[in-house]
Amino acid sequence: LHLKNQLSHAIENRQLNVVYQPIISIKDKRVNKFEALVRWNNQGEWVSPEEFIQIAEEFSLIKELGQLVLSQACLVLKQLKQQGFNDVVFNINRSVFEIPLNQSENKQWLNTIEHFGLQPSDICFELTESALAPDKRNNEILFNLLRESGCTIALDDFGTGYSSLAYVRRIPIDYIKIDRSFITDMSTNEDDNILVSTIIAMSKALGKKVVAEGVETKEQLDLLSALSCDYIQGYLFSKPLPAEQLANYLSQFN
Ligand code: G
Ligand code: G
Ligand code: MN
Ligand code: NA
């Protein structure tokens, strides 16, 4: 409860911070996408996002947290575009509790994006499939709301939840992000290798782009490249970067 009060205070005072991890296109070795990842330093101590996101969900702080992350990210993205990095897209993680329940909640997100002079297509929402477990909400209606908004959608942590394939079939997603746990052992574990290649083949056959998460070694990169994976993300290329370093980082590709 103590932590919840501190989190509530931190959100109110905009004390959360956002870092941005590059997503690399394997084919042309360029970067124009970053995943926004929230960070919280609570009086000198880093609290893991897994811990405080869960608290935020439990105590109904998640929508405010999400708005804070979205507005911080939109400000940074607007500044990058003003510096000439026009085609940059930010991926924003969305808990299922943040999915708009109706047109007016959806408008709130769109208004934030518009407020910073950005287009919906400048933002991709990453949704975690495990968070999409069937509940009272009709996920298809919600996803269609998101789709109508013009933002792209990525299915995050693919392979770890359940009903993954049902979601792929029924929901209009643009990107599939293969969970890090499959990538980690793909160079040593034949089964993981088969699973990764099958996910990539399936995604491509369905017309979706594939991102491999948690790529840490050259060996993994080479395997993914041979499998025609579209994008990779991971410490091999870069850890998440503070906003101030993005322009400099992007300069190397121009
Ligand atoms: O950055 P890190 O690996 O520690 O992130 C841990 C988890 O927290 C990831 O699953 C990520 O999706 C989630 N996460 C990070 N930032 C946000 C955010 O702004 N909103 C939500 N809902 N989840 C986030
Ligand atoms: O669940 P989600 O995919 O949103 O989580 C992303 C998390 O993975 C972030 O917290 C990020 O810091 C972490 N991450 C990104 N790249 C790597 C990597 O190469 N190795 C490991 N172990 N974690 C990574
Ligand atoms: Mn993510
Ligand atoms: Na993920």
UniProtKB/TrEMBL annotation:
Residues 1-254 form the EAL domain. The chain holds residues 459 to 712 of 716 of the full protein. This is EAL domain-containing protein. It comes from the Bacteria.
